[in-house]
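Structure tokens please, single chain.
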Amino acid sequence: MTGSAAAGHPAITVVIADDHPVVRQGLAVLFEVQDDIALVGQASDGAEAVRLTRELAPDVLLLDLMLPGLDGLGVLAQLRAEGCRTRVLVLTSAGGSARPALAVQAGAAGFLYKDVDPDALVRAIRSVHDGHLVLAPGAAGLVAGRTGRDVRGVGALTSREREVFALLADGQSNREIGRTLGVSEKTVKTHVSAVLAKLGVADRTQAALLAARESGGDR
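Here you go.
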């Protein structure tokens, strides 16, 4: 296992699935210097990716779409069928306007291209681990167009973000939300920032107004 956990915090465990040894080696070196990421397995084909994910139950699977045998979309489909809880971040050089949407529809929590900046990749792994949807700049519009919905808005919120949104709309402070959900105030602040960004609003007041409109529309 590479990488080490920061004091008091377990590392985010990661499995890499890519058929190019040089890519796997480069990612391993990148993760080695991260205090909060631990590489626990490497797969060179789709079947091995499924097996390692099943056996190791990593927090995040970093998945290439172009794999020998079972391809990345096949891996996603099989993991979903098995009820796997691992978050999958696609990292690929595969082109095609349909691929980002197909990956997200198959259960991917993120889609990035291999020309991504290493620091941005690390941030994406952390974000996906925290329950967020992460898309490459060029992929967001493709996902919205293919799925028929925007990747922003209430529909883009994770279950935890929906909980935060509801409590925020009730006028609770970050501290109160933290007590209600049993998480730290810092964690709540991160969730609130994500909620505001996904809803496309500038502050809590606008978010509360949006919540009121959503509620009114449900009646």
